[in-house]
Design brief:
The structure is a homodimer.
Chain A lengths: L11 H13 L5 H10 L1 H10 L8 H9 L5 H7 L2 E5 L19 E5 L4 H6 L1 E5 L6 H16 L3 E4 L5 H11 L4 E4 L13 H10 L1 E4 L9 H14 L3 E3 L7 H11 L4 E3 L10 H8 L4 E2 L3 H8 L21 H8 L9 H8 L3 H13 L3 E4 L2 E4 L10
Parallel strand pairs in A: 3-4, 3-7, 4-5, 5-6, 7-8, 8-9
Antiparallel strand pairs in A: 1-2, 2-6, 10-11
Helix pairs in contact in A: 1-3, 1-4, 2-3, 7-8, 8-9, 10-11, 14-16
């Protein structure tokens, strides 16, 4: 199955095959993932069902598929107000392609906001469960500042830094997304049941685990890669040297997502991981939410000599890429001109410029919209 | 005058000319400095005295020289237990050559230790006068740890980080050197009179200002360059964004001395300068005295892929350079072999290996001494 195109009415069979794979394959299983890349989800599910595809797709997966209850997954999700978003759905966050063969097949979502659009302008804020008051203060206040500038703050719902990041965004009436290791109907940690319910109400609860799945160690690790993959950059507020946070940080670096870390007192073990990453040049040192946005937001950093990160082109829909290609290389274009140069309907152009602007590709201009460049074009004076 | 050779009995005339220049020329005056590099101190003093060498060497310098009391400087220094070390003296710290035309002509020293040897294995620890309890704790404890490993801790005697650095070294019975902006007989700040007296007793008080000179703004700035020039690396513990500490840091970088900075809470303005330098890659992030020594001490960092800094070859005396060149490229040499390969007397070889080892060029070996290399030579197993 090609996953880079938008399918407004997704192929129902491919969808069901992806949901079935999400039920029987462990997250981040790159062996099955590569097979799906080559043969497509329908063929792979068929092989699993026939049980004749070698050791990897043998009886284990077959039994899990038979027991999975995948056929009723959609109905069960709907019953609790959730939905399943698969690789072939319009709402699929295309930045997950960067995970390659380890990308999820489907994602469970609880919350009203559009998953793809919400995460197009998102930043991960993660850190230690055993954080200090200092770390908690930073996470809460910076998250609020990011949310006030329309950044979606993504974290993992854990005690400590994660919860402070979610709470900061909520306190600023912003959008926050919590990526869970277990099912979106299995709030974890239990002590955060009320917090997670509020996130579902005002933001998004997200998981690649089907409903009813409990957290397990391996699912925390695969969840961490998902946090890094879904966001434009990862900010580590506090982290001890060996921790799950470090796994998120590594995943961000492997996917060439900017990694940032907050310094703290050298006397605080909770900052040791941040100091190591900064010292070894793995993470950029940030001292404020403005620092983060300066590194994230092309609009703010045009004066910089380094081009700021923008959403990957692959994260755009085919219509958005078509619109992007219709922009003039220099100068601005009006919406009318874009309709004519792209051949898209006016409604698609208007929707598209919003997405392209929030993804950092274009910027508003007195004369319409123009491509964002590493250096601003010469200004008429 | 050539300043790169050792003159056990320095030319008395050149010595007096350098002392006279130190009296009438402002510190770091590169114009006069270049003239001295070209024409030599005797010729420049002669031109000043004749008053016929253009605007720069006109009446101002002539009057200052006449009033300076330079002829009695040596006697006055001796009277208070101090001494004057000039560019042609054996005790001159040769790393000051890195200052080029802005190098001092002479230095006043109060304290028993040999100036050159004491500073061969030295590190500057500097920072804000208005420091926090955190910064003071770091300066005191790290300075003590450095002193315990035979590093001379150099600072400027000011309130805050400087005083904590001196006190830490003293508490560990280590050697500390205080570089003053005014004369070594003019303790500044006055509140540190007892501290400075103790440093003179157990370490070194150092200044390029003649006796009796009071501190002035310009002398603080030139003193800061001296701190950076005299040491192998500079550690900034806490510093606000615009501060004298930043001048020391810039001077260290300009002379290619390693610059290190300590992170702290992002909520603390006293750490803002450190964070900027780390974030912009100007300073290495250090979280412990071991980190500092790891970057400084080749012996500790042989496993690292980056060669550690060592004392500049120009900082060695001609006899020490001759001894260094007499080492075999591979393997160790005994003192006897070094006597024969260098042609130096045994006493000079024994003195020299101590200096070369403390300067990071050679290391002790079961078979004698060997050159320190970026990678350790293959070990017999």
């Amino acid at each position: 199955v090609t996953t880079s195109e938008v399918h407004p009415r997704a192929d129902a069979d491919a969808r069901m095959a992806l949901i079935e794979l999400a039920h029987c394959v462990e997250p981040a299983d790159a062996v099955v993932g590569r097979l799906v890349q080559r043969a497509g989800p329908l063929e792979v599910v068929d092989r699993i069902r026939r049980g004749g595809a070698g050791k990897r797709l043998g009886e284990g997966l077959r039994a899990r598929l038979a027991d999975s209850g995948a056929p009723s997954a959609e109905a069960r999700a709907t019953a609790i107000g959730a939905r399943i978003v698969t690789r072939v759905d319009r709402e699929w966050p295309r930045q997950l392609h960067d995970l390659g063969a380890a990308a999820p097949f489907a994602i469970w979502v609880l919350g009203a906001a559009d998953l793809r659009l919400t995460l197009l302008r998102s930043v991960a804020m993660v850190g230690a469960r055993a954080c200090t008051g200092y770390g908690e203060l930073i996470a809460r206040t910076w998250s609020a500042a990011l949310a006030e500038c329309s950044w979606t703050v993504v974290s993992g719902g854990a005690f400590g830094i994660d919860a402070a990041a979610h709470r900061g965004a909520l306190a600023a009436d912003g959008v926050t997304a919590c990526i869970l290791a277990g099912g979106v109907d299995m709030p974890y940690p239990r002590a955060h049941e009320a917090l997670l319910a509020r996130i579902a109400d005002e933001g998004l609860l997200v998981s690649e685990s089907p409903l009813g799945i409990e957290v397990r160690r391996q699912r925390f690790l695969s969840r961490n890669r998902l946090i890094a993959a879904l966001t434009r950059a990862t900010v580590v507020v506090e982290a001890a040297e060996r921790s799950g946070t470090m796994a998120t940080a590594r995943a961000a670096t492997e996917m060439a997502r900017p990694l940032m870390a907050v310094p703290g007192p050298v006397t605080s073990p909770a900052s040791a991981g941040c100091h190591r990453m900064i010292g070894e040049g793995e993470a950029a040192l940030v001292t404020s939410a403005d620092d983060i946005m300066g590194l994230l937001d092309l609009g703010r950093s045009q004066a910089s000599t380094n081009p700021a990160p923008r959403a990957n082109r692959d994260a755009l829909s085919s219509a958005e890429r078509r619109l992007l290609d219709a922009f003039p290389a220099r100068g601005a274009a009006t919406a009318e001109r874009l309709v004519s140069s792209s051949g898209l309907p006016a409604s698609a152009v208007w929707a598209g410029v919003g997405v392209l602007a929030s993804a950092g590709w274009i910027t508003e201009d007195p004369a319409g919209w123009r491509l964002v460049r590493d250096r601003p074009p010469p200004q008429p004076s």
